[in-house]
Design goal:
6-stranded mixed sheet; alpha/beta; 6-stranded parallel sheet
């Protein structure tokens, strides 16, 4: 009888909460399609247990992990190296193990940029308006700038956080960046080529909520994007589509993040179509 190897390679996500995180379903669909004996563990890790979890990751010879809230910044002290984007953003959502070293990457913005490319929406020389200045907005803003966006408008209610993001972009990239306080109904800058909702407004279960902006200022054909993935067509995108916008859902960003994680960990091209179908099935009514 030939010797068999039953050991699976392990990856996963650390966060709190994580019960509603669908990444494991998407990654495992990709592993199965690629014929890889890999498993994705969805692990609830409270703030005070992160150090123990990182030690456990090494002890279990895991090949990598994702980090979700509240660990994206706290994990930095346990890493050996950061990518350029992760260093600028100051947060990590993906860790890969290379020769025993923990390498931090941020695929939030990269997944978004890839979804733009998939939709034939160029960034080179464009002006991008971003609603929000939190973790997703920062990752997206930095990656858009690194991909050649000419200028970014940051629209946010928290003045300090919005100004900080604009300054980060100006300091670390070649793009211009301008902060606009979000007071009442936000104006959409007249020179904006692309509009992005990088807030969680409209995410399940608050499906009736939407960002308070001047939807009448959205031009026909203007690319309008949302990081919200559940529901796939939040009210924000419905309102933008009614103005004739070219809308891009959060599903593309989410599956492209998963595909990038897959490729970083395994070195194998991700079966993105299979992974997208798995994600869509998760949100079917």
């Amino acid at each position: 009888m030939a010797e068999k190897n039953y050991r699976a390679e392990l990856v996963g996500v650390f966060g709190d909460p994580v019960d509603g995180n669908p990444t494991g379903v998407v990654e495992e669909a990709g592993f199965a399609a690629a014929g890889l004996n890999w498993r994705y563990l969805t692990c609830r890790v409270p703030v005070e247990k992160l150090a123990d979890a990182m030690k456990g990751m090494r002890a279990m010879d895991m090949k990598g992990i994702n980090l979700t809230m509240p660990h994206k910044v706290a994990v930095l002290e346990y890493l050996d190296e950061l990518s350029e984007a992760a260093r600028i953003i100051g947060a990590v959502n993906t860790v890969a193990v290379r020769d025993g070293r923990l390498i931090g990457e941020n695929t939030d913005g990269k997944g978004f940029v890839r979804s733009l490319k998939d939709a034939d929406i160029p960034l080179e020389g464009k002006v991008v308006a971003i609603l929000g200045a939190g973790g997703a907005a920062k990752a997206i803003g930095v990656e858009c700038a690194l991909e050649g966006a000419k200028k970014l408008h940051i629209i946010n209610r928290n003045v300090a956080r919005g100004e900080e993001l604009a300054e980060t972009i100006r300091k670390h990239t070649a793009a211009e960046a301008e902060f606009h306080p979000w007071q009442g109904t936000a104006e959409i800058p007249a020179d904006a080529d692309i509009l992005i909702n990088a807030t969680c407004v409209g995410l399940h279960p608050d499906v009736d909520k939407f960002p308070d902006v001047r939807y009448d200022q959205i031009r026909p054909g203007m690319p309008v994007c949302d990081v919200v993935f559940n529901p796939a067509m939040p009210v924000f995108l419905q309102k933008a589509e009614a103005q004739g916008a070219k809308v891009l859902t959060g599903l593309g960003m989410l599956v492209n993040q998963a595909a990038l994680n897959f490729e970083i960990w395994t070195g194998v091209k991700a079966p993105r179509e299979v992974m997208m179908e798995a994600l869509k099935r998760e949100f079917e009514d």
